[in-house]
Amino acid sequence: MGEDGGVQTEPDEDHELDTPGYRAYSAPARRRPRDMVISIVVLLIPIALLVAFYRLKGGEDPVVMDPSGTIAQGRAAGAFWIIEPSGLSQGWRPVSAVYRREPDGAVLRVGYLTPGGGAVQLIESDRPADALLAHELGDQARPEGNEVIRATPWQKYLLKSGERALVRTESGRTMIVIGRADVAELRELGQAVS
């Protein structure tokens, strides 16, 4: 007997399935490791195709740019005499160029990738040499003697980071060739501005 005094009957299964909002309970589907591996592979295939397409189209190649506009900007400012590198062998690729005014002078930076795969930066500035060298070379730069390039003396430095630098100081201007590259490549860039 039910609570209201009536006779309790078993629920009609067909009736309950037709009742709005009623969901039959079913056990959760069991995932097998094989199913998860297949799902991951299905997701990785488009990613692998995108990466392959990116590489084939040269997506990892450095962006080469023309620094002449930045060099012209520096020359127009007239802060100091700027020399544009000339006569570099094939394989030198300019990848960055920035001219910036600092509180104590101006700085032109042109970054290159070398034919040997190194990265070198040419810095020209009218900032006081001591301040510029301390900023660019760090306080633990070790002098390694002089290098004469086209009859002009340059000072050689080994930096704590393993980079090398060539420095040429003149009246009112300092030039630095700095980077991770073969010494011959640093010398070649020094020759291009000497």
Describe the structure.
The structure is a single chain. The protein has 2 domains: 13-56, no CATH class; 68-192, MucB/RseB, C-terminal domain (Phosphorylase Kinase, domain 1), CATH 3.30.200.100. It has 5 helices and 7 strands; from the N terminus they run αααβββαββββα. Strands 1-2-3-7-6-5-4 form a 7-stranded antiparallel β-sheet, with helices on both faces. The chain is of the alpha+beta class. A hairpin with a 2-residue loop joins strand 6 and strand 7. The model has no long low-confidence stretch (mean pLDDT 84). The protein has helices spanning 13-18, 33-56, 68-77, 129-137, 183-192, and strands at 93-102, 105-113, 119-125, 142-149, 152-158, 164-170, 173-180.
Mean pLDDT: 84
| CATH level 4 superfamily of the largest domain | MucB/RseB, C-terminal domain
| Rounded radius of gyration (Å) | 35 Å
Strand content: 25-35%
Main β-sheet description: 7 strands, antiparallel
CATH topology of the largest domain: Phosphorylase Kinase, domain 1
| Strands ordered across the widest β-sheet | 1-2-3-7-6-5-4
Please render the helix and strand layout as text.
Elements: H1 13-18, H2 33-56, H3 68-77, E1 93-102, E2 105-113, E3 119-125, H4 129-137, E4 142-149, E5 152-158, E6 164-170, E7 173-180, H5 183-192
Q: Tags for this entry?
A:
194 residues, alpha+beta, Phosphorylase Kinase, domain 1, 2 domains, 7-stranded antiparallel sheet, 5 helices, 30% helix, elongated
